[in-house]
Specification:
This protein is an all-alpha fold. The chain has helices at 2-29, 37-59, 66-69, 71-93. The protein has four helices and no strands.
């Protein structure tokens, strides 16, 4: 049951992040108020790093900013490393 909740959370956070990046790109094209970069990076850090990477490619958004080009993949790698550690730690205990 817990793994299902985690998967639903990750799906929702990645979908939300993808949509927010798309909204920010739309606002950038129309010279409107933008979503702060810190918010975009926070969304990636809170579980939406895959959605952020997909949105960066799909909308060609924030791809020239080093903190996004390298930061978002780094966030994803750290999360994968933590997940792998937790998985191996849990399976070795069972």
């Amino acid at each position: 049951m817990t793994i299902h909740l985690l998967l639903y959370y990750l799906l929702a956070s990645n979908l939300l992040t993808f949509v927010i990046y798309g909204i920010d790109k739309h606002k950038a094209r129309h010279n409107r108020w933008r979503i702060p970069e810190a918010t975009l990076l926070l969304l990636a850090a809170l579980g939406g790093s895959i959605g952020a990477l997909l949105a960066m490619r799909a909308f060609r958004h924030k791809t020239q900013h080093k903190k996004f080009r390298y930061g978002v993949p780094a966030i994803l790698l750290v999360k994968l490393a933590i997940a792998a550690f937790c998985y191996y730690r849990y399976t070795s205990m069972v």
